[in-house]
Amino acid sequence: MKSFKSHVIYDSRKRRGILFFAGILVLCILAIIWYPPEEDITVAKEEKVIVTSVQEKIDSLKKIELESRKPKIFPFNPNYITDYKGYTLGMSVQEIDRLLRFRESGKWVNSIADFKKVTGVSDSLLSRISPYFKFPDWVTNKKSNKRSATKWKTAAQKSDLNSVTYESLIAIEGVTNEAATKIYQHLKKLGGYQVDNQIYDVYGVSTKIKRSILNEYTVKNKPDLDLINVNEASASELATVPLLTFDIAKEIVDYRILRGGITSLEELKDIEGMTPYKYDRIKLYLHID
Fold first, then answer.
1. Is the CB of residue 136 less than 8 Å from the CB of residue 210?
2. pLDDT-derived band of residue 218, with 50, 70 and 90 as boundaries?
């Protein structure tokens, strides 16, 4: 018991020390309460300028990064929007089909207003894509347009497109060797054109060159083709038709088997993946018994 008391009983000197320490502790607490640390750190004017400059650079880099992630759109002629191009631009299937049907009728979109009227796209989409429309000079320049109209030949004045040669193509003003080669090879690959518009299926040749050729040539003598019987051909045989992919060919065969045959080529319009543009091309090479 005496040992326990010896540990808890302090003499007057120790008690004064404890009280002194407690007093200092209380004063520190009161000082913290009465004089809290300042939250705002004072920054020199020069430092503020540097911080602002760095922040502006960071914001600029963020903006550049966001812009780089956006899909890039290059100038294009809206008359030659394909299914895929229309999809990437945000057009609906119906809007794309309206444009393709309009073009297949031989008509042209010559202004932003025409594009709006033909496709029926929304104003918001039109305002986003119309700055990238690139119409030919003969459309944007009225004088040039008039000259082109007066020089356009009639069918009687033109030669047969299917009898054209490489030499006669490069003889046309504005037709390059590369363009003549591509068009001539495409013509021979198909065994001749059934309609003039098939020349627009040639990839990598400008519309201006194609129009120049069609001002000199038109289809007069259609080639004798061995048409493919859509009710008997296999998917591989159907896939040999221009613009008819193997996937669509399989869809046609499945459709034919499911319904016990196809009675009209018009039924092909109901095939998944078939567009009016593709239908107008492939029907030239098919027949039904």
1. no
2. very high
State how far the alpha carbon of 271 is from the alpha carbons of 121, 157, 184, 240, in Å: 25, 40, 32, 17
Residue 165, CA distances (Å) to 107, 184, 193, 213, 249 in order: 28, 7, 14, 12, 33
Say if residues 164 and 184 touch (Cβ distance below 8 Å).
Answer: yes
Instruction: List the domain boundaries for the chain.
Output: 78-148, 152-218, 228-287
Classify domain 228-287 by CATH architecture.
Answer: Orthogonal Bundle (1.10)
β-strands 217-218, 159-160 pairing: parallel
Q: Which residues pair with 228 in a beta bridge?
A: 286
- Determine the Cα–Cα distance for residues 125 and 288; give it in Å rounded to an integer: 42
Q: How many residues does the chain have?
A: 289
pTM above 0.85, yes or no: no
Q: What angle do CA 11, 12, 13 make, to 5 degrees?
A: 95
Report the chain's terminal Cα–Cα distance, integer Å: 123
Backbone angles phi, psi at 160, to 5 degrees: -75, 125
Residue 250 confidence class, pLDDT cut points 50, 70, 90? very high
